[in-house]
Design brief:
By secondary structure, the protein is an all-alpha fold. It has two domains: 202 residues, no CATH class; 43 residues, no CATH class. It is built from ten helices and no strands.
Length: 274
């Protein structure tokens, strides 16, 4: 599959829209849903004319990032770059999802360089906003907070992703042709094992006394009672709702006074009534 320059630019825009710090598809800097390789891969598939295969490859790339967490200003990997450029390279080379995972994961590591550059250069705009705050100019504060950082982020995301997609797809196709045979089989085996790492990290995150029980119940319902996944999801939603209510009631009771009566604080209006 040949990727045109226009398609490469569209893929770069998809990467920009899904990156951390873009407010257009998220809530002012929170992680966008396009940041997930499953969604990004589907959009890349639409751009290249094969959304189904793009969704399949994106889902495979998403598995190692199931337990991915970006805490504070840290970004150990970049699932967005892996999901966009990785899916584009895989579609262009015509490889299966297992080999696509092996191709995409190194891109996730390289994407951290874009994040570090973004965070470093944004400090300049913060100082500009501080000067505007000293002057009491709200309009300038909003300007330095939104416009220059987004222009910088657009350039840092779209330009590298476009170049990597447009020029890298041909190189990946040639590399895959050279690796046809046993080397490609090894890559497919490695790529098939990598999703297990993400699932294992996710299992470790839920292996707590309060959550592991619900996971086991869901596993039994699907595996042994053959219930549809949607039915189990709805059942889990109902159980989670009542579990949260009971947990909140328990916290209220623990906050009560030792004699069992809730503690009541009188405000000024109540004191005047007496």
């Amino acid at each position: 599959m040949h990727i045109s320059l226009f398609q490469a630019i569209l893929i770069g825009v998809v990467y920009y829209l899904g990156n951390i710090g873009t407010p257009w598809l998220s809530l002012l800097g929170s992680i966008s849903v396009v940041y997930k390789p499953l969604v990004a891969g589907t959009l890349v598939g639409f751009s290249l004319g094969d959304p189904v295969q793009g969704c399949i490859i994106g889902a495979a790339i998403n598995l190692p990032y199931v337990a991915f967490i970006s805490a504070g200003g840290t970004a150990p990997q970049d699932p967005g770059l892996a999901g966009t450029v990785g899916t584009a390279w895989a579609l262009a080379a015509g490889v299966d999802p297992s080999a696509a995972v092996t191709i995409a994961l190194p891109l996730g590591l390289l994407g951290t360089m874009i994040w570090v550059a973004h965070m470093t250069l944004d400090v300049t705009f913060v100082h500009m906003a501080d000067k505007a705050a000293d002057q009491g100019d709200i309009d300038k504060i909003c300007f330095w907070h939104v416009v220059p950082p987004q222009i910088l982020m657009f350039c840092l995301c779209v330009i590298p992703a476009t170049i990597a997609t447009y020029f890298g797809s041909t190189a990946v196709q040639g590399l895959i042709e050279q690796l046809t045979g046993r080397p490609l089989t090894v890559l497919q085996v490695i790529g098939g094992l990598l999703p297990a790492l993400g699932i294992a990290m996710n299992l470790r995150a839920i292996s707590r006394p309060g959550t592991l029980l619900f996971y086991m119940i869901g596993f039994i319902l699907v595996q042994y009672m053959k219930l549809p996944v949607i039915a189990v999801a709805v059942l889990g939603l109902v159980i989670g709702y009542f579990y949260t209510m009971l947990l909140n009631n328990n916290q209220v009771q623990q906050a009560a006074t030792p004699d069992g009566t809730p503690s009541v604080t009188l405000d000024d209006d109540d004191e005047e009534d007496f």
